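Dear support,

I submitted the protein below through the web form. The confirmation email said the job was done, but the results page showed an empty box. After a refresh the structure appeared. I'm attaching both so you can tell me whether what I see now is the final result or a partial one.
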Amino acid sequence: MLCYLDLETRRPESGETVPAVVDYKVKTTPLTQYKADHDFQPAVYLAGRWLERDPAAQFCFAQLAKPGPRRREMSASLVSTTRTAGQLRGALVRIAQVARQIVACHERFGPDEPWGFADPAGWKCSERYCEAWRACPGGAGL
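What the results page shows now:
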């Protein structure tokens, strides 16, 4: 797994400054606090720092909200979230499970057979992001 941090900084918390990771987003619909608290990206980034013994106390979504049907002008927001040590361990378990599934599919189907498909409505199943899309029965082959 490879992650690129947009910004590593220090932010105020309980009268002191703590390490934080900030991710920049430009969205039509900004993430709410609830969505930030349940999003997998903060868990992955914070787990990586935790494994490196350089933990960050917060993950922040710095968001620019684009104009649209419900918004006339650009707006900005900062939504911070944290993860417990148990949540970080859980994220690492999920990553390990995906790695095991990749190995199992490669052993069973090899590199040339389909392994299952992304949701065709999602961005992952597109000509732009998947080099196998044109030949894939889950992509252009549908």
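Response: this is the final, complete result; the empty box was a page-load delay. The chain has two domains: 7-109, 114-142.
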